[in-house]
Amino acid sequence: MDIPHVRGxxxxxxxxxxxxxxxxxxxxxxxxFGRYAHLYREHAPVGWTRxxxxxxxxxxxxxxxxxxxxxGNRISLLANADCRIHTSVVREPMPYLFRNADGDExxxxxAGAGRLxxxxxxxxxxxxxxxxxxxxxxxxxxxTSETRLLIVETGELAVxxxxxxxxxxxxxxxxxxxxxxxEPSTLASGLxxxxxxxxxxxxxxxxxxxxxYYPHCPLDVVGWKGTLTVWQLNVRDIRPVSSxxxxxxxxxxxxxxxxxxxxxxxAPRPLENGDPRALKVPFYHSNIDFDEVLFYxxxxxxxxxxITPGMLTxxxxxxxxxxxxxxxxxxxxxxxxxxxxxxxxxxxxxxxCPPATTLEIDDYWKSWQPKPEGAR
Length: 376
Hints:
Elements: E1 23-28, E2 36-41, E3 58-61, E4 75-79, E5 83-90, E6 97-100, E7 104-118, E8 121-125, E9 129-133, E10 138-154, E11 199-205, E12 208-214, E13 231-234, E14 254-258, E15 261-266, E16 269-270, E17 284-285, E18 291-298, E19 311-315, H1 325-330, E20 336-337, E21 340-346, E22 351-352
Parallel strand pairs: 1-17, 6-11
Antiparallel strand pairs: 1-2, 3-19, 4-5, 4-22, 5-10, 6-10, 7-8, 7-9, 7-10, 9-13, 11-12, 14-15, 15-21, 16-20, 18-19, 18-21
């Protein structure tokens, strides 16, 4: 049995009525579900003067990535044994087909529109779409406008158990769209190094690409049935849970899960306005058991200053983060948040991939430092 101990000045209800002159830190195992301690500090734990060594909050600017070939332009950002996080920008229809034999893929469409052609049929995609592509699926993208993607390559993706919230919480499974093989692929033969009358399929296995050539288009399915297919979900169909008097943990916004990985969507929602003592901004925490990645899609990002759409932050295990000072100052009068962001939590530590270093904003860690009196 876990018996909570109480010592010193504390808030009896977590995240509500934090003692004057203190900030609250959640020190917890297994994300927000294990044993915990709430620490009440006189100073924010992010008020450092300098950091020496590789462990630090990191920020990447993805908005400037130029368009190119879908695979050739796929930039690896962060990776571990369970997932890889990439970005890619495509403007022209892919002249070949692709199959990932290493893992499921989740494509988040940050900008753009077009057509996704798959073994199961085609789907029209647009900004704000999640596209879940099971491992082993053959597909191609045919953009009608420049398409900017956040890509998560991971184990088998599924929808989390919503427990007492019920199966229709966050989004009703009926809003998931699946493809139908009503129209043939628009991919012509003889492209991407093919001979006349040939189609090229590129397969990734153990991070090595193999090209297989066919005398017919491999997207030739005329019907399918079953429980495994491509899913499409737009962020506008997500209806986040909220509490008027208590700041819910990020895990309450989980959209998809995979082994050792959780993917959450922060969508516009009301803030905690029912009790003036309740925290509205995220509490400080140090990610004891999870690395945290946040991709900023649209809106005003409530807990961060200086963040614009298309940026990605990485907060690794072992070092604190939470609301920046200016975000905390805005909180008392804020009524709701209009942000849309994608969060990726990984149980195993992520490594920074070499291509990401050219996209990093090096002084992001300084943005947490306390501002001098009178500074704007």
